[in-house]
């Protein structure tokens, strides 16, 4: 079968390509150009040229054809505009979630047409078939690297056309395979940050588009002015770093976007600031959460989960945590699980 493989220049996608080749598939590699030229010119160097050099080296060694595909315009229209809009609302967006559902496994597939039987990537996730043939999304055995959080806003039809060749492996096993195959990037470190920024700082991206707007940092309990900030959009709920206030630690507890005021507290974990419930919008279900007796939720990418209950009797479902999470912030994705199975996601709307 012919498979379109997304390569980033990193070890994970390169091992995925090598595995497919050895399993008898006919892979064609694709490198997506989604980086933003204006931002890169203004903010500094992005490692895309280095990434592409590794992609070319891997494809040459594996004897796999490579195509470089520009999706910069659709990425701007779909992901970057969403990110900027959410930040201006005082929300905490996650563009990498939408990048998967709208770019890598949507716009990309539309661009290449029906030439390929499947698309594939180096994500740490697994797709399994139900008895009726419906695809289901399951976690990677590597709980640290698991990427189901970033895939949970996709739909069932998209998963029916996707292969995750390394989804059943741990990161250590992937590294071992990279060494065994002697891949050109076998010793390359993992990349960090948003997919369209590479190593550039997110704060620099925000400054480029939204600039600075001086405002006050105010103590939540007393109303005392603690200092100044350069714009509420540089802060998210639960943030501790970057406040530059003496006598801390201080945490961001809320933002007044109309007045451009950031409220901070040293008593962030007090009972009166307990956060154990929120409403959810834009739900996307891969499987029904109502039939699950052990429902859990992730409020951000990482290992931590909360046991929870979901009340779906109203227009906006309400999430109740078995405990509390002080980092609940509108705009974040809430991703739901039943054990190793990912059930779907929603966007936190408010408290």
Structural overview:
The longest helix is centred in the N-terminal third of the chain and has 18 residues, at 95-112. Strand 14 and strand 15 form a beta hairpin. The chain has three domains: 2-122 and 165-180, HUPs (Rossmann fold, 3-Layer(aba) Sandwich), CATH 3.40.50.620; 212-271, Adenine nucleotide alpha hydrolases-like domains (SH3 type barrels, Roll); 274-350, Translation factors (Elongation Factor Tu (Ef-tu), domain 3), CATH 2.40.30.10. The mean pLDDT is 90. It has helices at residues 11-22, 37-43, 48-62, 72-88, 95-112, 148-151, 156-159, 171-180, 202-210; strands at residues 2-6, 26-33, 66-70, 118-120, 125-129, 135-139, 162-163, 215-219, 225-229, 251-256, 261-265, 277-285, 295-298, 306-311, 318-321, 333-338, 341-350. A six-stranded antiparallel β-barrel has the order 12-15-14-13-16-17. Strands 3-2-1-4-7 form a five-stranded parallel sheet, sandwiched between helices. The protein has nine helices and 17 strands. The protein has 351 residues and is an alpha/beta fold.
CATH superfamily descriptor of the largest domain: HUPs
The 3D shape can be described as globular
Low-confidence residue ranges: none
N-to-C SSE series?
A: EHEHHEHHEEEHHEHHEEEEEEEEEE
Termini gap: 48 Å
> Any idea what the radius of gyration is?
21 Å
CATH class of the largest domain: Alpha Beta
By CATH, the topology of the largest domain is: Rossmann fold
What portion of residues belong to β-strands?
Answer: 25-35%
What CATH architecture of the largest domain would you give?
3-Layer(aba) Sandwich
Q: Helical content, roughly? A: 25-40%
* Mean pLDDT level: 90
| Distinct helical segment count | 9
